[in-house]
Design a protein that fits this description.
single chain, 580 residues, alpha/beta, Serine Threonine Protein Phosphatase 5, Tetratricopeptide repeat, six-stranded mixed β-sheet, elongated
């Protein structure tokens, strides 16, 4: 079995190159030479204030380097992938902050043995250099009912501590004040993760094996095993299981939440969930928490502390009061902190009413006019013609598309027939064309529905009640065709319906100057041009629409869209010839 592919240059250089990428992209960050330490580039602004330092293994990006900036961390130290940073680099970071004039340095450390040892050693060394240092351990994992002696793991709740401590430091709070406040807040923070896949450290095999169709609850951010495996369930069920587990008083690591409490929730992508899945989980989390009687004050949704490419999500809940929210909402320049609203999530009206566009044209009541019978007969003939041609059009479409061209035209025809049974045909052609546009848009669907609807909508403006002579119909046809070309992007010669429509419309434009006696001849010629145009598409290479993705040598039949247009025009002509 081969290690999973990664888009990197080399296993050895990926951490340093990733840090360089972060810093090059962020004007407020710089790198400490010779160390994997990301610093604020405005260290002068730390004078007299408490500096915050965090860090840990790489592979959790954007943690921790992405949280460096005014209002959050002053610096972050990175280790190798999933490896604690070395004490020498931690000490170098502490001394850089001290030398910049910080009044003290607070280390924010996730509860892993390696991190505790290395940050602890650096803290002791810094004290020997006369630096005021303190350390807060984040251990907010809710997975285990009976945590081992190592205690609960530090997970995404660490990011909340970065934010709250950062806001306090920015305001000028002392080291002791910050430690006291965040230690109190930590009692009300809990995190639980679930994953659908393992992750793999660059150059290594996956960290554990998770069969397809299974998920693991309560795993750590380094691929450490969780508490339970089960079949993958729906997002709603998974979120309910997670929140029920986190708030279960039978567990020693549960989060004590009561109905009416305010919470901040972080929906954290562990690396490889799509944004769409994450949004579905976010909705489920908000609804589930509200169903527990909790007030959701703020929601963060995104990638905040990942585990390389693990397909999973963690939920972090934090009990919130007015002061916590004030600190949470305070501005920060850290590049990875999201641009959040400070409006309470629960209780907010989040649905906006659509504009009143009036009734649909097909629902309006119309009055008949002299043209109503003529237009009704033409429409009836068009519909029956399209229904007769349903299988022929499907068959032509199977060569170049998904074989449903006849079905979509038949759908439109049946919708029009149904409408004709229950409505009078308006005497105003523009109103009829608007009705037809509405019907095909709604009932035909697909690209062809949009194209026909565009044609009919653009044409309608040219045939109002007082202006519906032959010349007006010609300019309506021309306007409809131009709209199809403008929005559809196709031209004659691209093997589309336009190859039948455009020659016919060019012929129909002669109606603008023809004497009344010559109009029928022009109509007959236009229908003939449409038929010839459709037939000629046998020899054209498709340049637009779905057929343009098919090899040209496979397309030897005429284009079904062009054949349908020719059939529609012939049906109109036949209905008019039958009324002479």
């Amino acid at each position: 079995m081969e290690p999973q592919k990664k888009l990197i240059n080399s296993v050895d250089s990926c951490v340093d190159e990733a840090l360089c990428g972060l810093v090059r992209a962020s004007g407020g960050l710089s790198l400490l030479k010779g160390h994997r330490v990301v610093l604020r580039s405005d260290l002068d602004n730390l004078k007299g204030k408490v500096a915050l330092l965090s860090g840990g293994g790489s592979g959790h990006e954007p943690a921790h380097g992405g949280y460096v900036g005014a209002g959050m961390l002053s610096a972050a130290v990175a280790g190798g992938v999933f490896a604690s940073p070395p004490p020498a680099s931690i000490l170098a970071a502490i001394m850089s902050l001290h030398n910049a004039g910080a009044s003290g340095v607070l280390l924010i450390v996730k509860n892993y043995t390696g991190d505790r040892l290395n940050f602890g050693l650096a803290a002791e060394q810094a004290r020997n250099h006369g630096v005021a240092v303190d350390m807060v351990i984040v251990a907010e994992d809710c997975a285990f009912d009976r945590p081992s002696k190592a205690g609960r793991r530090g997970l995404c709740g660490t990011v909340f501590i970065h934010k709250l401590a950062g806001a306090l430091a920015e305001e000028g709070s002392s080291l002791d004040q910050i430690v006291a406040k965040v230690t109190a807040v930590l009692k009300g923070i809990g995190t639980l993760g679930v994953s659908l896949s393992p992750c793999s450290v660059p150059g290594c095999l996956p960290s554990f094996d998770l069969p397809p169709g299974e998920m693991e609850l309560g795993l750590g951010i380094h691929g450490e095993p969780g508490i339970k495996r089960s079949k993958v369930a729906s997002a709603d069920e998974v979120v309910k299981t997670m929140i029920d587990h986190m708030t279960n008083p039978d567990s020693q690591s549960y989060l004590p939440l009561k109905s009416g409490n305010s919470v901040v929730v972080c929906v954290n992508n562990l690396g490889a969930l799509s944004c769409l899945e994450l949004a579905v989980v976010t909705r489920a989390a908000v609804i589930c928490l509200e169903n527990h009687g909790l007030v959701v004050a703020r929601v963060m949704s995104g990638s905040f502390m990942t585990s390389l490419e693990m397909a999973g999500v963690s939920l972090t809940l934090m009990l919130a009061n007015e002061e916590t929210l004030r600190l949470f909402d305070a501005k920060t320049r850290a590049p990875a902190w999201p641009n959040l609203s400070s409006v309470c999530v629960s209780g907010r009206s989040y649905i906006t009413d659509p504009p009143a566009l009036g009734t649909r044209p097909q629902d309006d009541t119309h009055s008949e006019g002299p043209l109503s019978p003529v237009m009704r007969r033409a429409l009836e003939r068009v519909c029956s013609s399209l229904l007769e041609k349903q299988e022929e059009l499907n068959s032509l479409d199977r060569a170049a598309g998904d074989g449903d061209c006849g079905n979509t035209h038949a759908q439109a025809a049946r919708a029009i027939q149904e409408w004709l049974q229950g409505h009078v045909v308006p005497g105003c052609p523009a109103k009829l064309l608007s009705v037809l546009a509405g019907l095909v848009q709604e009932k035909m669907g697909r690209s062809s529905g949009a194209l026909y609807s565009l044609f009919l909508t653009a044409a309608a403006a040219h045939v109002t009640e007082g202006q519906s002579n032959a010349a007006a119909w010609a300019s309506a046809m021309h306007a409809g065709t131009q709209a199809m070309r403008r929005y559809g992007g196709a031209d004659p010669g691209d093997r589309t319906m336009l190859d039948a429509l455009c020659p016919a419309v060019d012929e129909l434009m002669k109606l603008t100057t023809a004497p009344p006696g010559g109009q029928m001849l022009i109509l007959q010629a236009a229908v003939q041009k449409a038929a010839s145009g459709a037939e000629a598409t046998r020899d054209l290479t498709a340049k637009a629409g779905r057929a343009s993705y098919i090899a040209a040598e496979r397309l030897t039949l005429p284009d079904p869209g062009a054949v349908a247009v020719a059939a529609i025009l012939r049906a109109v002509l036949e209905s008019l010839e039958g009324q002479k």
